[in-house]
Known about the structure:
The longest helix has 32 residues, at 203-234. The protein has 2 domains: 2-201, Rossmann fold, CATH 3.40.50; 242-464, NAD(P)-binding Rossmann-like Domain (Rossmann fold, 3-Layer(aba) Sandwich). The chain has helices spanning 10-21, 33-40, 51-60, 70-76, 97-109, 126-141, 161-166, 178-188, 203-234, 238-246, 267-280, 286-309, 337-344, 357-361, 375-378, 398-404, 427-430, 444-453, and strands spanning 2-6, 25-29, 64-67, 79-82, 114-118, 147-151, 171-174, 198-201, 319-322, 383-386, 408-411, 417-419, 422-423, 432-435, 460-464. Strands 3-2-1-4-5-6 form a 6-stranded parallel β-sheet, with helices on both faces. The protein has a 5-stranded mixed β-sheet with strand order 9-10-11-15-14. A two-stranded parallel sheet has the order 7-8. The termini are far apart. By secondary structure, it is an alpha/beta fold. The protein is built from 18 helices and 15 strands. It is globular and about 70 Å long.
Amino acid sequence: MKVTIVGTGYVGLVSGACFAEVGNDVLCLDLDASKIRMLEAGEIPIYEPGLLEVVRRNRAAGRLHFTTEVERAVRFGTVQCIAVGTPPGEDGSADLRHVLAAARAIGRHMTEYRVIVDKSTVPVGTADKVRGAVAEELRKRGADTPFAVVSNPEFLKEGAAVEDFMRPDRIVMGADDPKAIQIMRALYAPFQRNHDRFFLMDVRSAELTKYAANAMLATRISFMNELANLAERLGADIEEVRRGIGSDPRIGFHFLYAGAGYGGSCFPKDVKALIRTAKEAGGALPILEAVDEVNAAQKKVLARKILARFGGKLSGRHVAVWGLAFKPNTNSVVSSGSIRLARAAHGGVIRDEALAIQVVKAVIHEHHSFLPAHLDRVFHLVQLIFANEISHRPVGDEQFIREHAPRAVIEMRPGPDIAPGIARDQILEIGIERIAVGDRFVDPGIAQYFSALGHAVVTAFFVVH
Length: 465
């Protein structure tokens, strides 16, 4: 099948590469000529595990192509996937300019039946606007070319997007055109050979499903952050609480970790957009409004807590930030708590995980230096901050930790160990005092100090005596 992908960002590039991987002929369109030159040269503009290999393999096989020519792209694919950005507006609503511009371009150049697929995360009612934009362009041309508009939201996790696309847990499809439904079933057939994962529904329900899923996950994160703060005040251990409630199959363990708030390009934007959608519909979502407020508060306390721990300033100190992206296995720093932290460490030395170095250099650069995160370059520093849920920790045995651990180690959420083989209940024996989110190993004096300041304790750090 011939498929056109409009937009070579995160969703577009992953979708195009994975559709090509199962044998489709895919043409990806982007108006950014420099990005297309990069892709044609066998490179990709984002980091995503496994994606580069899939792109190169299908380029070599002649199934994956790239272009800046709009007319060529519209005439190419029976399926036209719109996967452009929907950045938040000042009022929190999703900006649909790029989506509607893509729809108008399709209407301007199409000459035969097209299935127009909304893969971008868009508010309920967007499909109607896309349909209207295409129809308007056809009227201008005096054309009566048939088309269908389908909602097919993506549910990809950054850091595991290729795996998620190739082995989806669900394929949500909002459509009412029988021909379009048949085409979309055929397109997704290779991805659901074991059992049917195709959830067919009306278009508006599909649009809402995407927002509802992200809002639910964001709610779990904010809820656990509030519980962690309460657990610490009560002398409970949030890690034990997490295991206790997560073992209930009605709750489960996913997204049940306390930390410094959620980030990335999806959760913050989608929560705000859904709140805005409710207001435009004459309703309200007070739970989600609280989720957003809790998350904003969580992002601020980490820097305040570190500064308070070191007398209000970090000037002259060496600070290592391990993990600048908003989560593991990505180079995205959108809404990353690490960026806020790095700016708070003004005048310090920021050392980080290699994946995000180049991205962060474009965001912050003054008073900071950047080095790959090697153990021998990090452990001799005075403070080490684990600034995201990194997938690897420093490797070293107990003796190495005893000899080289920095005076303070700060991490965004409680974890089972400081290094492989060093469990958290052993760190006191090593000589490290641990202060964590909702962790019962909290020094009472420091806990009372921050409580008196009115600061929620949302991170963890280790102090070597």
